[in-house]
Structures are given as C-alpha cells and as structure tokens.
Amino acid sequence: MLGLLAALLSAALTMLLRPLLVRYALARPNARSSHAIPTPQGAGLAVVAATFTCLAAWGVFHGIATGLAEPNLVAFVLAISGLAAIGFIDDIAPLSPRMRLIVQAAACLGLLQALPDGVRALPYLPYPLEVLISLVGLVWFVNLTNFMDGIDGMTVAGIVPMLVGVGLLALHGNVGASTDAMIALTLAGALIGFAPYNHPIAKVFLGDVGSLAIGGMTGWLLLSLSCRGGLIAAVILALYYLADTTTTLLQRWWRGAPLGQAHREHFYQQATARGLSVVHAISRVWLLNGALLVLALVAGTAQSIGLQLFCLGLGCVLTIALLRYFRG
After folding, report:
1. Best CA proximity match to 196, nearest among 6, 5, 11
2. Can you give the pTM of this predicted structure?
3. Residue 180's pLDDT is what?
C-alpha cells in the first residue's frame, strides 16, 4: 500500500515539476549524450519527495519531530537530503568534481551513522578498516548509480529489483528490519511512478538530484542488509551495476583515459551505439536483475554457505553473459 501511494505521488509530482524543469534544468544533447533532443532533468526531486512524504505519513520518521527519538533515521534523512541538494545544484549549474566528491563523502559518513547499532558487515576485519571500506563503497555506489543513469529507463530497471530484494529480505527474520523494508519498497514505488515519464523516449530525466539520492538510499539499504547477515545476497542484487561500472572504469584507467570525464563506454551504451534499441537493452537488464533477485532471495534465506556461494557464482555467470552480449 505504501509503495502504491508513493507511485501515485511520484507520478503527480513529476507531472507538476516538469514545466519548471523545462525552464530551469534543460539537458541539451552533446557528444556524450544518449538523447537527441533537449530534455528536462531533475525529476528525481519528485521521487525523493514522494518517498520521504509517504514514509513520514506512516510515521517511519516520527523521531524527526523531537530530533532525539530516532537519531539513526535523522542522520539518514539529512544525508540523503544533502546528496539530493548537491545533485539539484549540479543539474542547474555544474559543479567541480572535487566539490561533488567532498559533499558525497560527507553525506556517506552521515549514512554510516544511520546504520543499525552494534552490527557489522565485515566483523572479521578491524573496525576502522571496515568503516573505510564501507565509506568508499557507499561513495562508489552513489556515483555508479549516477554513471548508470545513461539511457531511458535504466535506473528503474537497475534499482527497482534491488529494492524489492532488500525489502523482501528485510521482512525475513534472519536478515531483516521492518524500517529497511518500508524504505526500500516505498522508494521502489516512487521509481515505478516516475517510470512512465522516463520510458523511451523519455519526457524527463532523473538528473543528479535523483541519481545521487537514489544511489545513497539504495547503497545504504544494501549495506544495512549486509550488516544483518545478508552480505552475499546484497552483492548478488548489485552484481550488474557493480560489474558494468567497475569494469568500464578499469578499462578506462588501463587506457589512461580521464576517469572523471563523462563518456559513453558502459556496456549498455556500447550496445545501443551499435544499433541495439534502448527498449531491447533495458528489457535485458530487467531479465537479468529479475534472475539476480531470485538468486538473492535464495541466498538470503539459505542456511547453507555452499548454497549461498552457488547463487553468487550463478549470478556472476549470468551477469558476464549479459555484458558479453552487450559488448558483442
């Protein structure tokens, strides 16, 4: 029910915001763009607003009223708001990479403070090292979500299955928390409400305000799932995003290409540049992420480490197969 409410509110807010975005936040095509006509960006503001509004309406963030009752949730909301703010500014007037990275790192530090108390994702490592790895991982996930938002419908196809997986596993007693489930399924609903406006050919883009905030929320949910014993399931859910962006970055580093420069070298972008339709590419991502969702649910609820590793291995094989398909 909460997801449906978020979908309806997100769709309505996107429709209301679009005329303003046409005036103040128009993305014009350039050599690195995947769109051919000027398109407004920044509709991620509607997705984030719908998510927070619906959660607040159901009392998830009731601690904000006192500022003390739910300090973890306060840190979460402030950190995501910071990511959305820097993204919105960047959509209107591009900022320097250094400024964006500083704000992202500060926001991700806030997200680490919002994790459940007394639980760890990597308890076999020294705590300071785990914090460093978690911080770098969150910053990377925020940016890779932004990187992957390169063709119409990609963020919905890539993120919604992750959120559904986190939400379902969070409801499971072994790895779950009801708050995580509510956040994940509400954000998934808000993205689905935005999807009709972003279906090829898109009428509006998420913009950095959406991709950074959505990346922050999703990365935090995956990290929270890992802290609750679902590390392998979290990795499976994120396999395609991690594989495409990390492989592309390593290839650019190997060639000596500027890592901070915008490009069209992701696997799905190479496929569409060679003539594969956007709808065809997105449908393949949906299929893969649907399969990864099933494998993550099995791994997240299995007691056998052997079965969990089998699901991870099969997910890797399927992900590599799609990357090879896009490449060839």
Report:
1. 11
2. 0.90
3. 87
How many Å apart are CA 195 and CA 132, to the nearest integer? 35
CB 47 within 8 A of CB 206: yes
How many angstroms separate the CA atoms of 159 and 215, rounded?
Answer: 9
Residue pLDDT, tens place only, 171-188: 876 554 678 888 999 999
pLDDT per residue as tens digits for the range 94-117: 788 888 899 999 999 999 988 877
Quick one: which of 30, 22, 8, 17 has its CA closest to 263? Answer: 30
257 contact partners, CB below 8 Å, separation of at least 6 = 263
In order of 22, 230, 288, 292, 318, the CA distances from 314 in angstroms are 44, 17, 11, 9, 6
CA separation for the pair 93, 153 (Å, rounded): 24
